Amino acid sequence: MKGLILSGGKGTRMRPITHTAAKQLLPVANKPILFYGIEALKDAGIYDIGIIISPETGEDVKAAAGDGDRWGIRITYILQEQPLGLAHAVKTARGFLADAPFVMYLGDNLIKDGVAPLVDRFKGSKVDAFILLKEVTNPSAFGVAQLNGDGRILCLEEKPARPKSNLALVGVYLFNPNIHRAIDEIKPSRRGELEITDAIQRLIDTGHHVDSHVLTSWWLDTGKKDDMLEANRVVLDEMTDVCMDGQIDETTRLSGRVHVGKGTKLSHCTVRGPAVIGDNCVLEHSYVGPFTSIGDNAQVGHAEIEHSILRENCRIVDFHGRIEDSLIGANVELTRSHLKPVAYRLMIGDDSKVEVV
After folding, report:
1. pTM to 2 decimals?
2. Considering the chain, what is the average pLDDT of its residues?
3. Euclidean distance between the first and final Cα of the chain, in Å?
4. Structural domains of the chain ordered from first start
């Protein structure tokens, strides 16, 4: 069985962060989202994985994940020139997939229990496709499934204006080779994309067996800033250990589940977990609250940070303020000016959002 991870797309909902980074490489608990998907497939016994990449961010994804050696797997990169739909991604990967059954995993999704139980269930059945569903409050933002009283799938719709149920398709799909013929038989949707929901519906319409499972554990789609923060919160909340590889002085207080990376130094700080601080960071006279992850090589001084993600090489010094519910990109510098007259002095990129009190 093979794996196919989708790591293309333009990440428009996460701009300006994704102007310079693939959304699948954004960190949750200081680990790229993409790596969670790779590890989930490997844990399911899948060692041959194709990753769909885009022209804009493909080289970054290659540099981050490499050839798969670190996980003991083989990674093949497949270029999708345009983001023309999930079914189009499968069509683009046909040469890699050949006639093997496969798991398709959306690279910006996180699932609590991984995919190993689902793969075992799929292998032990005679179904042509297996989909995951989850009850959501905003089904019109997703592909939606309608089931009958026996739990069989009646129909699927992609982002319907008037959803027939609140069961959204989770970003993991399992297929046998019959999906390729179904994709060949569908046409682009009104969005101009080849929809995987249309391909699965085609399987149903032509008498193929499509099974489903409704998740009761968490599933996270990290498409927006608040989604990223929620994913960070959930993953950190499941940490069970304390890890101290750095150095703290006698005035620093750590409580709860806290990870401190190698080469990191904390002085006159308070850190309340769950929280993760990366390697080679310097924190001074600062407070780090729960559900915060700070990337490698960050510098934080005279600041308070809680429920936030700081990417690598951030520099927040002499700030004397509180940061919360924030996603701060790589190489950002945030300071408080002492110049008069007092004023906000900003350099803000396209598609940014700033709240000032």
Report:
1. 0.86
2. 88
3. 53
4. 2-236 (3.90.550.10), 241-335 (2.160.10.10)
